[in-house]
Design goal:
With 203 residues, the chain is an alpha+beta fold. The chain contains six helices and eleven strands. The protein has a five-stranded mixed β-sheet. A four-stranded antiparallel β-sheet has the order 1-2-3-4, with helices on one face. A two-stranded antiparallel sheet has the order 5-6.
Length: 203
């Protein structure tokens, strides 16, 4: 594949090779290619992870929030985006953990990538009279959404799928904070709180 960028690393003679958002390492002559994580042993920082996070950061302000389900807790001053599949067990646990987080507005992009009846459930939720309630009833209480009847514009679901592919979101839940930081996978309430504070300070 085409190499997008080659740059020096903190290790003399070792270079970072970037192909899209994938990071590899090579020697001076490009004779060897290394795939893996680079860790700074003094700070214990994962340099590869930090670099990928920077490359995959999402411009929060550019997200089409009109295509998301929205709910608010407390003042709703802090913002969080979640890409979620209705059949994702980790998403359900995450949704429950979110109940303990104060003063947050959560934007959920329905992103049915697990197959099975995920697309149908997403459609039924999106087309519900109160789709946010339908989403939360299903994720938290286990109450299945009513079958969508009649005409309903599901264009948002197609746009969400395209958005997820564009940003290489390959699993759910995928979280995006106000400063653009992405976190793949669920977080506990305490970790969410910490990241909301850190992201607010940066954005």
């Amino acid at each position: 594949p085409k190499i997008d960028e080659v740059s020096k690393t903190p290790i003399p003679g070792l270079y970072e090779v970037r192909i899209g958002t994938d990071i590899f390492y090579t020697d001076d002559d490009g004779d060897h290619l290394i795939e893996g994580q680079m860790i700074d042993t003094k700070t214990r920082a994962n340099l590869t992870e930090a670099r990928v996070a920077k490359l995959t950061a999402i411009d929060f302000a550019a997200l089409p929030l009109k295509d998301a389900l929205v709910w608010k807790q407390g003042s709703g001053a802090r913002k969080l985006v979640v890409f979620a599949d209705p059949n994702c067990g980790y998403c359900k646990k995450f949704e429950k953990d979110l109940q303990a987080v104060k003063d947050v507005t959560v934007y959920t992009f329905l992103y049915p990538i697990l197959g099975g009846d995920s697309p149908e459930k997403s459609k039924n939720i999106w087309c519900s009279k109160d789709n946010t309630k339908a989403w939360r009833d299903w994720m938290i209480e286990g109450t299945a959404p009513m079958k969508a009847m009649g005409q309903c514009d599901t264009g948002a679901l197609a746009r969400n799928a395209a958005l997820g592919r564009k940003h290489k979101i390959n699993g759910t839940p995928a979280l995006v904070f106000e400063d653009g930081k992405r976190v793949p996978g669920a977080m506990g309430a305490e970790a969410i709180e910490k990241q909301l504070v850190a992201s607010r300070a940066k954005s």
